[in-house]
Design the sequence.
């Protein structure tokens, strides 16, 4: 005759929760610093692109192929639109990825109408992300 397994209660410890709270704060702080660093990097990258390539926005830069960047840079250099300072290290705009990223919502609206797009948005299941916020002791 089978015997019923004894039910064990899992214990959530104070140390476990406090450690999790510390890691949540560290993670939040690191994400904030990462965001700040990305904004600063993007600003400086765009400033260089404006000088060297004459583009007015990040979107304009994204539209250029690596070959176009080389040609535009050389053409503007030859025309005297920009030059490196004496002793300035060489640099290049190097492609890190490429792909087609259409704005699906706008394309969907253009093809099937706003009501169809709204229906898809409302019928798509919500997904959630969570963090654990611990009240101070």
Sequence:
């Amino acid at each position: 005759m089978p015997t019923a397994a004894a039910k064990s209660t899992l214990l959530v410890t104070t140390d476990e929760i406090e450690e999790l709270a510390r890691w949540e704060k560290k993670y939040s702080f690191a994400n904030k610093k990462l965001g700040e660093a990305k904004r600063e990097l993007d600003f400086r990258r765009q400033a260089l692109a404006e000088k060297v390539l004459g583009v007015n926005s990040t979107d304009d830069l994204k539209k250029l192929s690596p070959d176009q960047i080389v040609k535009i840079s050389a053409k503007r250099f030859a025309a005297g639109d920009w030059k490196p300072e004496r002793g300035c290290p060489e640099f290049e705009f190097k492609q890190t990825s490429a792909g087609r990223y259409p704005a699906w919502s706008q394309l969907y609206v253009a093809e099937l109408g706003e009501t169809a797009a709204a229906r898809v948005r409302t019928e798509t299941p919500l997904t959630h992300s969570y963090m654990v916020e611990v009240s101070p002791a």
Notes: The helical segments are 14-53, 58-62, 66-78, 104-112, 114-123. Residues 13-84 form one domain.
